[in-house]
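SAMPLE LOG
Freezer: B-3
Tube label: C17
Construct: single chain, 249 aa
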Amino acid sequence: MCIYCTTNKYRKIYEHHHGTIPKDEQCRSYHIHHIDGNRLNNNPSNLVAVSITDHYNIHLSQGDLNACLILSNQLNVTGEELSNIARERNRQLVEQGKHPFQQPEFIQKNKEHNKRLANKRVQDGTHPFLNKEMARARNLRWSQEGTNPFLNCGDWVRERNLQQVKDCTHPFLNQGAKVTERNNRQIAEGTHPFLDKDAARQRNLKRVAEGKHKFLTMNKEKLTCPHCGKSGSYPNMKRWHTDNCKSKP
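STRUCTURE (predicted):
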């Protein structure tokens, strides 16, 4: 009787019943795969020796993406393939409601962390809401250096926006007839910012350098609601008052 059959040492069980575990051309020992996917079922008939590549492909075909990510450390898997596997695994976890970001403990912990960080920045006087001039100067410096995130949003974002503009599905194309008409005209003329990223970037940098960019001036502008008479910064008044005011008849 095999002395290992009552243990969880499945490699020893395989060797006792099937012989020596082979090695590949790089002298790496073969993996022992559980045929039914149950790692607790160490019956000799449920164990098979496979190469690392075959083991990876088996789990990939079964949709066991966690095992694929673990096995990828021993293989020359491309970064793109790893990203696709991780993305698919995260999608599955979200659908099953098992993603860490969906767990109440993580959400609460993240809220507490952000609150502590915000309080620390408030105490240090470095929170953007306490010093808008500092935040504005930082954004200006980033824009002049070409390191502002809004100027380097990534090729995939730019391609997505370009495709949405061509398909007339971009959110900016659905903000009223006037905006839609302007955007459609710019697309037809080939002057839309999403169609000429370099020209748009240079124009934004020039406006920032001259202090005329709307993101640098909009917070200074004051706007009075014609319905309730309240006054405030331009962004907030446009969002909560004017056409969206509760006092609007």
